[in-house]
Specification:
It contains six helices and no strands. With about 180 residues, the protein is mainly α. α1 packs antiparallel against α6 (about 160-175) and α4 runs antiparallel to α6. It has one domain (about 50-175).
């Protein structure tokens, strides 16, 4: 009788262990399936976010390259100069134009790297400082046309902050979207 009780006890133990193991296996299987499902959902979400964000990022790069292009001396002078304008007024209008365009594009920094934004700010400040330095050196002695000519001379033959910023943006966009 002790042998049969022992056999029954062993069988009961085997059944309990089998149920426990089966339950643990099922639990692990379910957990793994949940993890897979969560990963798939995250991939779908990331893909959907990229579909929305990528065009916005491209637009930000486009807008900032356009801002830099509009800030070049040729474009800036052509856009701001009016006949009968004083040199002081030309200087003020150019600087205000740069600041207005910069403020208009301020939100674009969300979609580019911090380093790219530093290049943009440096280009803006450099152009404003260059315009102010001409005015400080020459005063009102220059006509608006001569003032514009002096601006062209100061930036001719050297790589400007604008060009550095444009080059950086182009490189960055190429790296991001290869």
């Amino acid at each position: 009788m002790t042998v049969s009780v022992t056999i029954v006890a062993i069988l009961a133990l085997v059944v309990i262990l089998k149920e426990y193991y089966s339950s643990e296996t099922t639990k692990k299987f379910i957990e793994n399936e949940q993890k897979k499902t969560i990963l798939e959902i995250q991939k779908i979400q990331e893909s959907e976010v990229r579909k929305v964000v990528t065009p916005i990022q491209l637009q930000a790069y486009e807008r900032l390259v356009l801002f830099l292009e509009r800030m070049t001396p040729n474009n800036l002078v052509l856009r701001c100069y009016q006949p009968q304008m004083s040199t002081q007024l030309l200087k003020d209008v150019m600087i205000q134009n740069i600041r207005d365009e910069f403020e208009h594009n301020l939100s674009q920094q969300l979609y580019i790297s911090s380093q790219a934004w530093v290049y943009i700010k440096n280009a803006k400040e450099d152009m404003i400082n260059t315009i102010n330095s001409i005015q400080a050196k020459e005063g009102e002695s220059l006509s608006p046309t001569a003032f514009a000519g002096r601006l062209f001379e100061m930036l001719a033959g050297k790589e400007s902050q604008i060009e550095l910023a444009q080059d950086f943006l182009k490189e960055e966009i190429q790296k991001r979207f290869q």
